[in-house]
Amino acid sequence: MSAKILKATPSSVFLPEQGELRRLPRAPKRHRPQKFWDGFEDRALVYDVFWHLDNKQVLLVCPPPLNLEEYWLQASFKAMPSGQVLQPQIHNIRSSMTIALQDVDATQTHIEITFAGQKFVAEIMPNLADDFDGCSVMFTMSQNNPLSWIAEWARYHQTMHEVDAIIFFDNGSNVYTPEDIEKTLAEVPGVKKVLVMSVPYRYGPHDPGVIFHRFWANFLQVSTFSMVQRRFAGKAFGLLNVDIDELAAPIPGSDVFEMAHESIDGLYRMRGNWVESVVEPGVTDPMPNHLAFRTVRKDFRHKLNAKNGHLTPAGNGWLILMCIPVCTE
Amino acid sequence: MNMPKAMHKRAPIGLFWHFKGINTNWKEQRNRSNRLNSLNHHRPAELQNMFAKYLEACTKKDNKDK
Prior knowledge:
The structure holds two protein chains of two kinds. Helices cover 19% and strands 27% of the residues of chain A. Chain A is built from seven helices and 19 strands. Chain A has helices spanning 34-39, 69-74, 147-161, 178-186, 219-232, 256-262, 317-320; strands at residues 4-6, 13-14, 44-46, 48-51, 58-62, 76-80, 85-86, 88-92, 97-101, 110-115, 118-123, 136-142, 165-170, 193-198, 238-241, 246-248, 267-275, 296-297, 307-311. In chain A, strand 10 (110-115) and strand 11 (118-123) form a beta hairpin. The radius of gyration of chain A is 20 Å and the shape is globular. By secondary structure, chain B is of the alpha+beta class. Helices cover 41% and strands 14% of the residues of chain B.
């Protein structure tokens, strides 16, 4: 094992279970199945609190406020232990919100948030951009995917796209530990940095109650994009987001990171093609990996897929990944 | 800030393969087993070539490491 294993934990704030205040979904009176309500993140206020790369701002990455917006607008923020009152800049998009607290003294360790009459204190986590300086970073979120799949996914992207660092958000796996994932990734030849962060929170449900953007309630995953950009990869050579069930096609003589650097806007887009769950003849593994699947539908349905993006963090790249606002100004 | 649409169009477009069989059903039920049907399915050359190149590169790397 040659990869360096980095450690990081989120600094989260949740509304108390015993209280009545909760986040409600868009169009809250629409009928939705119980599965939606069971998976909807109604208590998380902040997923992570950390230093901005400039060491002057503290960023709070949060689910979107929705019905809690008025409380956020009235919320107050103090740096601790000094008690300095901080001014927030709130950037709100459909599935995530980032709050940038301005001019924070570098000696401060915690943020006190007064929200809806309640006080919460969160530790300010360090910015790890120096640890990923110059790296070609791949990141994902996963729950209970077999370690053999994770190993193949990592080895493929290291081999075909020169990925040398992996940030892995483990969404509450219960069949192995985060350390098992670290060990699996660290053993992939060519991978030099590995960070597995445990985020055992609600992933968020598909919403049958809306017509457009039915995955809008996936607050956690969208928010981790912001965490990767701003807490971990601010100095990286590039970022690639692919799930464990996705492989970025090779690019003759290049890779996704080089393509993003060569593009005018620092972005490389990929269209998805579905590969059917038809196992190749002769494969006997009950949980076969990607290589066992090589069949695609002939009709248009294999193209009914989302688009992934990859970008370099340089220049405008920061401003456009998933249209999440940046808080550098 | 949203990305201007014109800027988005300038980004080069590549391809990723999305495997229905790599799935533990934690997000959605999508790994119902399919049978190969030559009328509806095919084995695209790009995917076969991709795996061939990958395995060749892995073999080279393994030999180099020995």
